[in-house]
Amino acid sequence: MLLAIIASLGSGLYHMVSPKGDSARMVRSLAWRVALSAALFGLIFLFWRLGLIQPHGLLPR
Which of 20, 2, 22 is nearest to 12 (CA)? Predict the structure, then answer.
């Protein structure tokens, strides 16, 4: 999922700097990036609530 987020960000950057300046494609790819990022955050939160992952600090207490 992280690779899809990065690919969508790259696609948005390409459409932003391309000579054509296709703003509709840029907005669509950036909207996909936001949706994928929200979905990834939601999955991480869900896995935490289900006990599949546990938060930890850098140094044990």
Answer: 22
40, 5 Cβ separation under 8 angstroms: yes
Q: Give, for all 61 residues of the chain, the pLDDT tens digit.
A: 889 989 988 888 888 888 876 778 888 888 988 999 999 999 999 999 999 998 887 776 6
Count of structural domains, the chain: 1
User: What domain range is 40 assigned to?
Assistant: 2-49
On whether residue 45 sits in a domain, the answer given is yes
Q: What is the pTM of this model?
A: 0.74
